[in-house]
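quick q for whoever's on today - can somebody do inverse folding on this one?? i tried earlier but teh output was garbage lol. tokens:
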């Protein structure tokens, strides 16, 4: 039923959003760690594609076309390797370890790209 624009449930006449917040608190800490790592991994991937073209063009002296090609290799590698790594995670059961390793590896790659003085 609806009372003053807020939906209520039949259980204890409690607003639905309060029940949802209580259920969110019941998720284990490992779940929230995985959510945080996946969020970091995806946002890190987008940051890589956003800033890598600028780094390769301005700092490394690549042409704009070659800089865009180098940047697109990150997405291409992700597209090709994601199914294989997903299959491997399913077979081994080490999903959390793969997420932690992948996020750490991607972060270190970004630091290396940002701080290197050597033009590849």
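ok took a stab at it. sequence:
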């Amino acid at each position: 039923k609806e009372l003053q624009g807020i939906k209520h449930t039949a259980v204890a006449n409690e607003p639905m959003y309060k029940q949802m917040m209580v259920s969110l608190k019941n998720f284990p800490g490992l779940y929230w760690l995985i959510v945080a790592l996946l969020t970091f991994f995806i946002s890190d991937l987008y940051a890589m594609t956003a800033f890598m073209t600028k780094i390769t063009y301005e700092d490394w002296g690549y042409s704009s076309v070659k800089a865009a090609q180098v940047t697109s290799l990150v997405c291409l590698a992700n597209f090709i390797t994601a199914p294989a790594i997903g299959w491997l995670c399913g077979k081994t059961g080490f999903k959390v370890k793969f997420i932690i390793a992948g996020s750490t590896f991607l972060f270190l790659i970004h630091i290396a790209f940002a701080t290197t003085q050597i033009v590849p």
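fwiw The first helix runs from residue 16 to 25. also Strands lie at 2-3, 6-7. so keep that in mind when u check it
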